[in-house]
Amino acid sequence: MNQIKHVDKNDLKEKINFECETGNYHTFCPISCVAWLYQKIEDSFFLVIGTKTCGYFLQNALGVMIFAEPRYAMAELEEGDISAQLSDYEELKRLCLQVKRDRNPSVIFWIGTCTTEIIKMDLEGIAPKLEAEISLPIVVARANGLDYAFTQGEDTVLAALAQRPNAKQLDTPVEKVISPDKDYVEHVPLILFGSIPDPVVNQLTLELKKQGIRVSGWLPSKRYTELPLINEGNYVCGVNPYLSRTATTLMRRRKCKLIGAPFPIGPDGTRAWLEKICSVFGIEPKGLQQREDEIWEKLKYYVSLIDGKSVFFMGDNLLEISLARFLIRAGMIVFEIGIPYMDKRYQGAELQLLQKTCKEKNIPIPIIIEKPDNYNQVDRIRDMKPDLVITGMAHANPLEARGINTKWSVEFTFAQIHGFTNAIEVLELVTRPLRRNQKLEKIGSQRYTDRR
C-alpha cells in the first residue's frame, strides 16, 4: 500500500491544486433523476420526451421498480416528429390529457432529452398554452445527456420549480418568522433545497430546531401543492453539491440570499453546515461539538478499517469533494479527486473545509481534476495502487478484473448519507469491499483436512 508521508504544516500548499483534462463524460444520463424525484414529489407525473434509446435506458435503470406503480412515462419521438410532419402541441396535449385522466397528478414535469435539444423542440413555448388549456401545471426541465453528471438532472428540475412563482408569492414583503413556540428565535425565512428522503429531511429540520431555527420549507416538497413560499430576501441553503443552477436561479430570479455552507455529509460537514446557518442568523451554536464527538465514537469500528487506507475518486456524481473531505477526516489517504464539473463558487465553503481538514490532519491537499480523462486515470491508478477506487459503473468491473477494489459512486447518490446519524451509511459503503476481501482471505487461509 502506498503511503503519503506527513509533512510540516508550513510546507502545505495554501491553495488547492486544480487541473482540467479533456476526458469524455462516462456518467449516467441525467434523465435518471426521474428515479428519485417521482418518488419524492408524490403528486407528480414525469413525462420524458425523447427517442427509443431514452426509453430503453429508463427501462433498464428504473426496471427494479416494476412492482411499484410508477408515475413516469416515455413520450417517444418518431421519424414523423423529427422531420416536423406531426404537431408537437397536439401530440403532447393528447398524452397530458391521458395522464390527467388516468393518474390525476397535481403537476406534470416534461423532461427534455438530447433529441429535443437537437431538433429545437419548443417545450417552453408549448407548456404555458397547454397548461392553460388543460388546467394543470406543466413544468419543463432540460435534463439531457449534454450535462456533466447524471445528478444534475435534479438540478435542472429544481431550477425550473424555483422559477415558478405562485400568485400569492408575488410582491410579498420579507417578514421575520415570528412563532409563539419558544423553541424558535425570530429570523428571516429559511428555505432548504435538495431532494433527500423524508427521514433525512426530518433529521436535518430537527437539528436546526435544536438551534432555534425554523425551516420554512423544502424545495422540492413532498407534494407540489406544498411548495414553500419563496420571496425576495429569504435565505436559502443547499444540501447537495450538484445544485449550482438551482442556487443561481434562487439568487437571480427570486432575489434570495444564498448561505454558502459546506454540505451536511459526515459529522464534520453536518456540524459545519449547522454552524454556518447559525452564524448567518446570529445564533450561538449549542452542543454541536459534543454531537460530532458522539457520532465519531459510534464510527470507531469503521474508522479502524479505513485508517491509513488510500482511495481514488474517478469522478461521477459531483459528491466527490464532500466524500473525500469526510474520508480524509476519518483517516483515509485521498490520492486524487476526479469530478465531472466544478462550480468553485457554489462549493466554495466545501473547498475551504477540505483545506482546513487537510491542514488539521497535517497532510497535503489532494489534487482535484475536473473532467478527468479516464485513460490517464487508469494509468495513475496502476502506478498509485490505491486500496479503493470510487468509480462509475462503466469502469468498476474492468478495474476489479485487475485486482483493484472498487465501489460504485451511484450507490452514494441513492443512499441516505446526509446528517449526523447517516454518516455510518457512507462508511458502510466504503468499507464493504474491504470487509469482503478480509472474509475471502480468511476463508482462503483455512485448511480443510480429510477425516475419512
TrEMBL record:
[4Fe-4S] cluster binds at C29, C54, C114. The gene is chlN. Its main location: plastid. CDD domains: Pchlide_reductase_N. The lineage of its organism: Eukaryota, Sar, Stramenopiles, Ochrophyta, PX clade. It is found in: Plastid, Chloroplast. Keywords: 4Fe-4S, ATP-binding, Chlorophyll biosynthesis, Chloroplast, Iron, Iron-sulfur, Metal-binding, Nucleotide-binding, Oxidoreductase, Photosynthesis, Plastid. NCBIfam families: DPOR_bchN, PRK02842.1. Belongs to the BchN/ChlN family. It catalyses: chlorophyllide a + oxidized 2[4Fe-4S]-[ferredoxin] + 2 ADP + 2 phosphate = protochlorophyllide a + reduced 2[4Fe-4S]-[ferredoxin] + 2 ATP + 2 H2O. This is Light-independent protochlorophyllide reductase subunit N. One of its GO terms (cellular component) is chloroplast.
